[in-house]
# Entry
Amino acid sequence: MSDSTFYSDRVGKATLRTSEDVSESAWYGLAALIHGYLSDGSLARAFPEQDCPDGNSITGTDEELFLDSLAGFIPGISRDVLIERQFPDTSTVLDIIDFIALRIDQPSSRSSHSFFRHEHLHFGGHNAHSPFDELLTPGQTRFRQDIDLLFHRNGIAFTVGDDMRVHRLGPPEARQLFSDLKPDSGDPQFDAKLNDAMTRFLSRTPAEHQDALEKLWDAFEQLKRLEPGKDTKQSVTQLLDRAALGPFRAELDTEFNTLRTIGNGFGIRHHGPDQHSLPSDAAVDYLFIRLASAIAFVLRQTGRMSR
# Structure
């Protein structure tokens, strides 16, 4: 049983995170979070209000400065987007999250200035105990947790990564695969190509997913040459011999041949008038996951995966 805050999560009735559109309810939840950050000083370091007559201490968040900056960096949204309950498109919402992610912090301490009836906000360093990254501030760690919970509850397949940027989670069946797929093949070019393909696949930009598939197919061709041999055929034979024994060896060989045929026939490796186009983004996802699974299996079986 889950230890989530919410009952539906604890009893296994959570909404699957499959949507790549930010819903209206999720936007209103995000807007409420942002209002909270403006009120509690989490954005005061980037947008300081310094109205204390005794000096330059930060006393709160300059909301006007924040809204002006938000509208300036994200063209097309109203300066009053958080006030008028407007519902932006998904790309704009994710841009707003990116904008805030690199500017959010939280005061490390507060001191009361009783004469003027306000607080002075003080900001410290990074969070040495962050479960994500020791370079994150406490405010960034909390922001990641807030956004992940909000998106989890609304079934949205995006998250804020270690780099404090929004990333696509990808289809549910791919997530564990990608978290474990850390190549250590001995060929830096192959490892870099595989990692680049995965990064592109998880991009927010749909156009990059087709590019990711093509990059992955390039890595697949390079995988076949990791074992020594006089030619690719001999190298891939040795590779599959190391990866599998018995009847499953024949199945793996069939899968490699099928994947090669798909790559040649659907405009992935080559482009021409006699080739087919993939029918949908879902087909791109399916083939990427299928090929990545085959590559991961072979790397793991031949001792080429980072532990």
Observations:
- DSSP finds eleven helices and six strands in the chain.
- The radius of gyration is 25 Å.
- Strands lie at 48-49, 60-61, 109-113, 118-122, 158-160, 166-168.
